[in-house]
Amino acid sequence: MTISNLILIVLVIGIAVLIVYFHINSQKNAEVVTKIDVDDQTYTLEKMIEFVKRRLDEITKINLYDIGLSEEELKRRKNKKYELKKALKGCTYGDVNDKKYVKELIFDLLSKEYGVTEMNISKAIPFDVPSLLTAQDKFDILIYIYKKEFAYEALSEMIRRYKLDEFKYIQGETKPCYVITEDEIDEIFEKENITLAFNDKLNIVVQRIYQQYKGYSSIDEIRDMNIDGVSGGVSGLPESFMSQVAQTDSADYLAQIEEHKVQRACDSIWIMFHGKSIRLAFLSFGTEAELKRVCQNIYKYNNPGQLSDTNGYKINEMKDGSRVVVVRPSMSETWAFFVRKFDVKRATLEQ
User: Fold this and answer.
1) Taking burial as the number of CB atoms within 10 A of a residue's CB, which of 43, 189, 320, 350 is the most buried?
2) Over 60: is that where the pLDDT of 256 sits?
3) Distance of alpha carbon 300 from alpha carbon 307, whole angstroms
4) What CATH number did the domain enclosing 217 receive?
């Protein structure tokens, strides 16, 4: 073998070693998020949801065998990856423990990697300026505070304390009805005079991110409460009707829709409390697409089959034993769901 051949072999081996080295390093760095480019939009809910989705996707998809870990570290990381995958799947079935696990991970990602602090958290939800808080913001804060003391009796306690389950007249209606209005939430929020620490604020932001990412949108915390049930999309006008109105150029009717005088199906959220159907007029799914997402996820426990145009309804149960019925067009006018909870443990003869 000539000297030139020997040098060539050494060069080839050296290049191969360098390629393997850089590949391992790049895989190691795959779990280290790049520096966050900070601008005016960085700490909005939309940007944080994008970040959380991307990071959780990276964590669950990384190939651990390419990183060059020790046997003990590889085993630990595999268990962590498996736990996260299981939790991300289980939380969509209504498993409160999986939900807690995912929320704790989101909390860590935002505080340790994304750089959320006391100074910038109000860009997500304006905690420091109560006049800018929406009815949903105020409700989320109230539920969080009540939950710390009353756990899953939080909503029931709030309804009992402020007599929210009584018949009432609302503007534009000729008959009394069971409804909780935005004005009532504003009054309760003012009376409670809540002071939040940074961890409280971050936990509320985490819940909002979770419910738009993996949870059940505006009803996510409500579904976990000890109430008789919750429904969505079961009243109001469907999106198809709104489109027809838009095409006819009915300016007066469109103005009423804009001012929320006409209820849309995606604004329809009802709870069943002590046998009373109460409409939560201050909450909404926002869009039909969000209502559709909730309907497509809420029935999936134990793989009951696909909800499709030809099979337009599904009857199933959730992980906690709640009964769920989901319907979709063209079987129904809108996407809708009904969740009924059966809390046998608390049932007494008097009840």
Assistant:
1) 43
2) no
3) 10
4) 3.30.450.90
